[in-house]
Amino acid sequence: MLEQFRLRLSRLAEFSMAALLAVIFITFLLQIFARYAPNLAFLVPIERFAVWLGGVEPIGWTVNLISLLWVWLIFIGCAFAISDKDHVVFDVFVQAMPPRLRLILGAVVSVIVVSAMVYAFLPTWDAVFGSRLMELKKIQTLRVPLTGDKIPNKWLFAPFIVMMLALIARYTFSAISLVRQVKYAGLLDEQQTR
Amino acid sequence: MNVDLALGLVTLFGTAAIGMPVAYAIIIGVLVYLGLAGQDLAIAGETMVQRLFDGFLLLAVPLFIVSANIMNAGSISDRLLKFCVALVGRFRGGLGHVNVVASLIFSGMSGSAVADAAGIGKLIIDMMIKSGRYSPGYAAAITAATATIGPIIPPSIPLVLYALVSDTSIAALFLGGIVPGLIMGIVLMSMNAWIAHKRNFGKEEAVPLMQLPGITLNAAPALLMPVILLTCIYSGVTTPTEAAAIAALYALCVSAFLYRTLKFKTLYDVFVDSARSAASVGVVIGASMILMYVVIQENVPQMISDLMAGSDVSPLVFLIIVNLLVLLLGCVLDATVIILVIVPLFIPTCNALGIDLVHFGVLIVVNSMIGLITPPYGILLFVISAVSQIPLKDMIREIWPFLGILVAALFVMILVPDIVLWAPQSLGY
Hints:
heterodimer; A: 74% helix; elongated; B: globular
């Protein structure tokens, strides 16, 4: 049940990440196109189309939109789609250890991640949603494409909160399962010695 | 250095050593520092998001990943290989030379050594083993060695990262990589020729010269890609980041419309894979940036600079010391981590000693790419071993001569800055 739910969730996350990346890619192309369209108008033989091309203006909102989506892509990815083996991990020492110790260290890592995220959660939540961000004036105003409505800054920082929550949940589960495996491995050892 | 920072760093290295993903280890190390120093814990998340949002240049990273993955998914790599076989396959140790030339050309399309190794590298290993003249270990070792050229010749993800932390022109860095990349190709080919001669590898059947124009034409769209990319950047038509988008579009069009090898399902997989690697690189970049924030707040780079200036080190000695350090770290650390975390510590010293930051950057990237093939921790060795099923120890046994000659080439680049600086300077950077 739970396993299936996790699988679905990671499929959904994969789809969202691919979609985010595709939107980033297309927005880039749009930005370049908009800058050069008027210069290209003379190449187009159809008059109405040429006139339209000549009237295209450079777009200002693309840079901010792309950066916003990039931030979401990274943190949503880390929250739901990227497992430990996809991450940059320094595992020379760990690989050289006996399997049981490896499981124990895995559990220790999980507990540390969970405690650190819990420790930092409230202050971070408060900073993002309680408008206690420190360098607010440095952030450019985000706007919705086309309509121009202002996007509150909390939506730029929200994916970090999402990642914290997801990491707490994920590493809690992995800690529990690793501790069980350690116990199981211990039982096996005992049986063998008998 | 004060106690808070020291304990933060101990946490960082301690947790990373027991297998925590490096990005999380950095975040947790920074949290420990902030907590001990009595600062707001929210600084970690806030700075991370803020820096990623501001680092627009970084967006070249996912786009370069997309274009390399599209190149690998389509039949572009096959056509390139045919071209290289026709060109240099006729000599003794021919497929070894093909390996080098294919990497040189492919490096003009992809910015990542791992993409080189996993894509075109796997194809060529199969070819070398099938020919029966090369041991699997040798095939894998030379593939790993040539893949290091990938990020030296533009485009290059590591150079983008370096540009970000050092505030250097990405266009100048890309130009600076061209000659060193070619030199690496030449020294690897010489080493291959020497070993082929010594072990008396058989020759391949030469492809008739008459067929060369046809095969070249077939590979031409792929060969054009680096030209398009560089033209976009240096004519000023697009920014380097936008050029990355154009490159991805070009790769997409070539494989979808010209070669007709790209299906929608493959394209979806390419985007999922690229997004996955972009996010796992992105989080390391973001985490490194909060670490930099802390390290700069504690004035560490300036302290290193003062120390060096006080002890009267000559620029050359400094370069050699830093490169030895990076070479050693490269045995155990990832190139991304070295460039983002270690290198910024030395930038103020470079400025104080009058070392050109373009020269320094290309040296560091060449060096950390060599680190990708140094045992015990070399990501290229792992990737190639995983995709080709060749045991790591067979590969490591054959890697030493290539490793040695690449380090020698690096040393020459340290001594003669003009190797790096000639191209950017002659174009006015």
